[in-house]
Amino acid sequence: MKKALVVDDSKAIRQIERKYLEELGYYVLEASNGEEALKVLQENPDIVLILLDWHMPVMNGYEFLKKMRSMDEYSHIKVMMVTTENQQKSVIDALMAGANEYLMKPFDKEMLETKIRYLFEGI
Fold first, then answer.
1. Which of 33, 37, 89, 117 has a CB 3.0–4.6 Å from the CB of 58, allowing a cystine?
2. How far is it, in rounded angstroms, from Cα 26 to Cα 16?
């Protein structure tokens, strides 16, 4: 089963994203900030997808993304920023730091599924 990691400081958002991903056939792990997410990655190197919030305590999504992308062992992982951050500069910064896709909150299951399909299949 494909593993995904949901990283968001909001438990409610993590639950929504978990539900959608499980319906799409993923085994879902969770973290409430970037520091926790790094620990989960170390314990689960077979994660293939990360849904990543921008604004979190301890280590935000952008800091996590830069740190994760600096480690070759995680280069295969697809990262989708899932955030309310909609400034064009922030979107560009995230993509330049290694995000593969960007999804604005709020979103629905169909939009998430379409973005994930694009990430893995390019359609």
1. 33
2. 13
- Tally of domains within the chain: 1
Residues 6+ apart with CB under 8 A from 26: 1, 2, 3, 4, 49
Indicate if the pLDDT at residue 121 is higher than 80.
Answer: yes
CATH number at residue 30: 3.40.50.2300
Number of H helices, E strands in the chain: 5, 5
| 35 Cβ neighbours under 8 A, 6+ residues apart | 58, 59, 64
User: pLDDT digits over 26-40, tens only?
Assistant: 999 999 999 999 999
Query: At 45, which helix (H) or strand (E)?
Result: none
Distance CA 60, CA 66 (A): 10
